[in-house]
Write a structure and sequence with these properties.
The longest helix is centred in the middle third of the chain and has 29 residues, at about 105-135. This protein has a seven-stranded parallel β-sheet with strand order 3-2-1-4-5-6-7, with helices on both faces. It has one domain: Rossmann fold (3-Layer(aba) Sandwich). It has about 250 residues and is α/β, with parallel strands linked by helices. Strand 5, helix 5 (about 155-175) and strand 6 form a beta-alpha-beta unit. It has helices at about 20-30, 40-55, 70-80, 105-135, 155-175, 200-210, 215-230, and strands at about 10-15, 35-40, 55-60, 85-90, 135-140, 180-185, 240. Helix 1 crosses helix 7 and helix 3 (about 70-80) packs parallel to helix 4. Bound molecules: NADPH dihydro-nicotinamide-adenine-dinucleotide phosphate (NDP). NADPH dihydro-nicotinamide-adenine-dinucleotide phosphate (NDP) binds near residues 185 and 217.
């Protein structure tokens, strides 16, 4: 079998659906041992079973990454079970679209807490282990981290934030041989839109998905695998991937 990641340990947040789920399965198929973290235990269990049936190795970790206690326990669990952490995929996120004038403040708070603050906290908790392993951090931002569309002010604020955080981080940790990659997908068919509270924006996203060929979660997983399976001298800093149908 082709196992470019044999001997590596990966942790994927938001692994219970969409991009995180596909990435966990892809990294496991490439030979990594993969810890899958999210809140929905049943979905994690189904994924871990799928990975194991395919001959891979998975560890389920029920964690809310906006909880500092859960984050510490999550990282400790990976390292206590497997002795190392080589690849961190910070993927958990939500996209609660609405015009700024109509924004629900709690939507903004949830996005900042999950998409930005939790990603920063998980990174900090994992960093000592990633330095020890000369590891790799993959942060899932978005095209919305480069182009701020109307209706996405809160979401774009968090995703531009991820880009800024990642670039500063890269320049801090390259000397430790830790690599940092930012992934910036366009529209991917996942559960991301299901949580939008603004009815008009939720319907509009549904319409866009119905009238275009969006990316699949596996398309993004393939990009992440590309970044993390390069020779250690190669630091793939940024990957932007849009559907061919997207402007
Ligand atoms: P999904 O909604 O399918 O997946 C989101 C994941 O995040 C789920 O596994 C969810 O699991 C997890 N999650 C949510 N809240 C928490 C929490 N508090 N603690 C731990 N995990 C949490 O959407 P996608 O796969 O599309 O999204 C993944 C990432 O990709 C996000 O960062 C998103 O912004 C980004 N992205 C997506 C695009 C798209 O078009 N789909 C485009 C560009 C970027 P659970 O609820 O079980 O905790």
């Amino acid at each position: 079998a082709n196992s470019p990641l044999a001997g590596k340990v990966a942790l994927v947040t938001g692994a219970s659906s969409g991009i995180g789920e596909a990435t966990a399965a892809t990294l496991a198929a490439a030979g990594a041992k993969v810890a899958v973290a999210a809140r929905r235990a049943d979905r994690l269990e189904a994924l871990a079973t799928r990975i194991q049936k395919a001959g891979g190795t998975a560890l389920r970790i029920e964690a809310d990454v906006t909880s500092a206690g859960d984050v510490t326990a999550m990282v400790d669990k990976v390292v206590s079970d497997w002795g190392q952490l080589d690849i961190l995929v910070n993927n958990a996120g939500i996209m609660l679209l609405s015009p700024a004038a109509e924004a629900v403040l709690d939507d903004w708070r949830r996005m900042v807490e999950l998409n930005l603050l939790a990603l920063m906290g998980v990174t900090k908790a994992a960093l000592p282990h990633l330095k020890a392993a000369k590891g790799h951090i993959v942060n899932v931002s978005s095209v919305a981290g480069r182009v701020a569309n109307p209706g996405a002010s809160g979401y774009a604020a968090t995703k531009f934030g991820v880009v800024g955080f990642s670039e500063s981080l890269r320049r801090e940790v390259y000397a430790d041989k830790v690599r940092v990659t930012v992934i910036e997908p366009g529209l991917v068919r996942t559960e991301l839109g299901d949580h939008i509270t603004n009815a008009a924006f939720k319907a509009d996203l549904g319409k866009r998905l119905a009238t275009m060929e969006a990316l699949t979660a596996e398309d993004i997983a393939a990009a992440i695998l590309y970044a993390v399976s390069q020779h250690p001298r190669v630091n793939v800093n940024e990957i932007v991937i849009r559907p061919t149908d997207q402007e």
